[in-house]
Amino acid sequence: QVQPAESGGGLVQAGGSLSLTCAASGRTFSGDVMAWFRQTPGKEREFVAAVTWGGTRTYYSDSVKGRFTISADTAKNAVYLQMNSLKPEDTAKYYCAARGTYGLGTTPGQYRYWGQGTQVTVSS
Fold first, then answer.
1. How far apart are CA 100 and CA 74, in angstroms?
2. pLDDT for 24-60, tens place per residue?
3. Chain segment 74-105, per-residue pLDDT in tens
4. What is the C-alpha to C-alpha distance for residues 30 and 82, in angstroms, rounded to an integer?
5. CA distances from 21 to 14, 42, 104, 115 (A)
6. Which of 8, 14, 43, 99 lies at a 20 to 30 A Cα distance from 117?
7. Confidence at residue 1, expressed as pLDDT on a 0 to 100 scale
8. What is the pLDDT of residue 54?
9. What's the rounded Cα separation, in Å, for the pair 93 and 41?
């Protein structure tokens, strides 16, 4: 079982940068997939980015491609999300998730383990 825990959220102005960290405790394996999702009140949880633990494969939603970078550090059991050129529409609660199996996934139902989330607010 994997227990993700997010940190690094906060308030930033539009155009600024923020870095999120997901510390994954428990049993992890090299083929597992870690992802970031985000959610705003009244909306579905939205896929942001995913990475394999080996860091060899990454995948991004079109809305963040070119601005966000996901990476994994297996030595630290951590996954990072570097967010640049932030926009007000990036405001959301960001969640880290572990798939618990092989293969990239982009829907919340494909992920078994979830953190509590961290709030990111981008002011205009």
1. 15
2. 988 777 778 999 999 999 999 999 999 998 777 999 9
3. 889 999 999 999 999 999 999 999 998 888 99
4. 22
5. 20, 25, 20, 11
6. 14
7. 82
8. 76
9. 9
Q: 92 exposed, middle or buried (CB, 10 Å; 0-12, 13-18, 19+)?
A: buried
Query: Taking the mean position of all CA atoms in its chain, how far away is CA 31?
Result: 17
Provide the token pair at 107: 């829907």
DSSP letters, the chain, are -EEEEEE--EEEETT--EEEEEEEEE---TT-EEEEEEE-TTS--EEEEEEETTS--EEE-TTTTTTEEEEEETTTTEEEEEE-S--GGG-EEEEEEE-SSSS---SGGG--EE---EEEEEE-
Q: What is the residue whose two structure tokens read 């991004």?
A: 60
